[in-house]
Automatic annotation (TrEMBL):
One of its GO terms (cellular component) is nucleoplasm. It catalyses: guanosine(9) in tRNA + S-adenosyl-L-methionine = N(1)-methylguanosine(9) in tRNA + S-adenosyl-L-homocysteine + H(+). This is tRNA methyltransferase 10 homolog B. Keywords: Coiled coil, Methyltransferase, S-adenosyl-L-methionine, Transferase. Residues 76-90 have a biased composition (Basic and acidic residues). Residues 107-304 form the SAM-dependent MTase TRM10-type domain. The lineage of its organism: Eukaryota, Metazoa, Chordata, Craniata, Vertebrata. InterPro entries: MT_TRM10-typ (IPR028564), MT_TRM10-typ_sf (IPR038459), Trm10_B_MTase_dom (IPR047911), tRNA_m1G_MeTrfase_euk (IPR007356). S-adenosyl-L-methionine-dependent guanine N(1)-methyltransferase that catalyzes the formation of N(1)-methylguanine at position 9 (m1G9) in tRNAs. Probably not able to catalyze formation of N(1)-methyladenine at position 9 (m1A9) in tRNAs.
């Protein structure tokens, strides 16, 4: 097309004075041709450039991943050597080093055993309808943390999520947010705690109860209210305990802690379910509320452990 255009320009130059209808047509055709040519070139150039940028990006990413992989490998190797050295120094050479897979299997077995012999705890999910989507997401995160703590525990609890409707907002959020949720070693059921356990064994934990929890009794079933209330609605779990006609108890915060001065004068005894659970786990391990509160009571709640608790 370029040559054709050149020849025609040549002809036009030869008969410069004769501008005819034919010439106008030819020029416009030429311009069209030129236009088409230019566009095609432009598109080709652009796509070539894009390809080059693309492949540069791909290469850069690939190099980045390779560097990361190499760093990970050498870190793993260093870590392995460090552990080996440690074992040699402590004379612990006979203790087998468990691989991740073995450790996972041991944890799974311990959790499975706890499902039949461990102390029992339900999270009552019958009250999630009135919660916002944000609260539902936070509750799903708290369930993940609670389960994570149980996995790490030396003596895990037998866990149940009760009144847990398949396909509900919370169910979908748990599956979306929590890796492997449907394989968690805990009972997921649409039944309520009363369908599963005799009412006289149930102790509903609520910050608004009069009675303080003394200890964790292996014959009882402890129930946490599956609630995240950003707009603190008081006594929901206490009302629920009344509705179920079961005993209600609060953590013994008044007995083992005291208010701490703070700028905002903020004091709260309402904890998230995973925080209550961490306190219960440590109490079961140590038999000491002081230890459990020291370790797990959130600093921002405006309480510190009492140097002379009213109960010991
Ligand atoms: C964020 S709290 C919900 C607070 C809510 N206003 C209510 O009425 O329960 C979530 C759950 O954790 C447990 N919980 C929180 N703080 C507690 C405390 N100080 N004593 C006993 N249980 C507590 C309760 O089971 C409670 O339902």
């Amino acid at each position: 097309m370029c040559c054709e255009f050149h020849d025609r320009r040549q002809n036009m130059a030869n008969s410069s004075c004769e501008t005819s209808f034919y010439d106008v047509n030819v020029i416009s055709e030429d311009l069209n041709l030129l236009h088409i040519e230019l566009d095609t070139d432009l598109i080709e150039n652009r796509s070539n450039r894009k390809d080059a940028v693309c492949s540069k990006n791909v290469l850069r990413k690939q190099r980045h991943w390779e560097r990361q992989l190499a760093a990970k490998r050498s870190k793993r190797k260093e870590e392995k050597q460090r552990r080996k050295l440690n074992r040699e120094q402590t004379g612990d050479v006979d203790t087998p080093e468990f691989t991740k897979r073995v450790l996972k299997a041991i944890t799974k077995e311990r959790l499975a055993e706890a499902q039949s012999t461990g102390p029992r705890l339900c999270v009552d999910l019958s009250m999630t309808d009135c919660m916002s989507d944000k609260e539902i997401s936070r509750l799903a995160g708290q369930i993940r943390r609670l389960y994570g703590s149980n996995k790490k525990a030396s003596r895990p609890f037998h866990l149940c999520l009760t009144d847990f409707k398949e396909g509900s907002r919370l169910y979908r959020e748990c599956v979306r947010m929590n890796d492997g949720f449907l394989n968690y070693t805990m009972k997921l059921t649409e039944q309520s705690c009363l369908d599963l356990f005799p009412s006289e064994t149930i102790v509903y934990l609520t910050p608004d109860a009069e009675q303080a929890l003394q200890s964790v009794d292996p014959d009882k079933v402890y129930v946490l209210g599956g609630l995240v209330d950003e707009s603190i609605q008081k006594k929901i779990s206490l009302d629920r305990a009344g509705e179920l006609n079961v005993v209600a108890a609060r953590l013994p915060i008044d007995e083992y802690m005291m208010k701490k001065d703070n700028l905002k004068s903020f004091h709260s005894k309402i904890l998230a379910i995973n925080q209550v659970f961490d306190i219960l786990l440590t109490f079961c391990d140590t038999g000491s509320w002081t230890e459990a509160f020291k370790l797990w009571f959130p600093l921002g709640k405006g309480y510190i452990v009492h140097p002379e608790p009213t109960e010991s």
